[in-house]
Amino acid sequence: MSHESSIHQAQTIILRELLFTPAAKFTLLQKATTLESDHVKFHLARLVELGYVSKTPEGYVLTIKGKEYANKLDTDKNEIERQPKSAIILVIENKEGHFLFQERLKHPYYGFWGFPGGKIRWGETILQAGARELQEETGLLAELVYRGVYHEHVLSEENAIIEDKIFHVIYGSGPKGTLIESFEGGRNEWSSYDDIASKGSTYKSFETEYAVGLGKESFVELTQSYTNEEF
Fold it and tell me: Are residues 17 and 76 in the same domain?
């Protein structure tokens, strides 16, 4: 769930001005936006309502929330920069030497096999995110160890970047609990690496994630390409 609101271009300009000064008077902000007084008052009121700006005797200032938001600005283009997604990948191995694999049954990547994983939530540590995702999606607990980073750019058929993801790869051993075999959006299965790899519908990062999970690599950056149908 997003905790940020879309804002008007004039509001972005106001935030940019406030980013470079302790406080700004109304006239300075109006000059920066080149708008009529009533329009500037409207946009300032909206920023105050969103919690990004507050009014003080010295002028308008950024709040803590506003500083964090405005710090994402590309100050040359006056727009919020897109940020890579941050997620975890779980390489879980049982005592038989089998690994926990998941078939994704939602878009994007519908029908692909790989390791379980998910997004890191605001305020979580990486291992907390791993433990939560493991329990939510598989019903299991395990001893988790951080193994490394896999950074991936995904290109479309048109050679455009459609995903920029930073995966924190976690290895898990000694799994306990009853496996959730299927859930909305996927199904889980214990299997050997070779059996899953032979399916022909694994993520293109599958071998890399496996290598990082087993400690053979600790940092990998790759660009992968998917057809529009695959994605």
Answer: yes
Does residue 4 have a pLDDT over 70?
Answer: no
Residue 2, domain member (yes or no): no
DSSP 17-59: HHHTSS-B-HHHHHHHHT--HHHHHHHHHHHHHHTSEEEETTE
185's CB contacts (< 8 A; 6+ apart) are: 104, 105, 106
Position 231 in a domain: no
- Total domains in the chain come to 2
pLDDT at 227 over 60: yes
Q: Are 209 and 167 in contact (CB under 8 A)?
A: yes
Residues 76 and 133 grouped into a single domain: no
- Which neighbouring-strand residues pair with 101? 189
Distance between CA 132 and CA 136 in Å, rounded? Answer: 6
Q: What is the pTM of this model?
A: 0.84
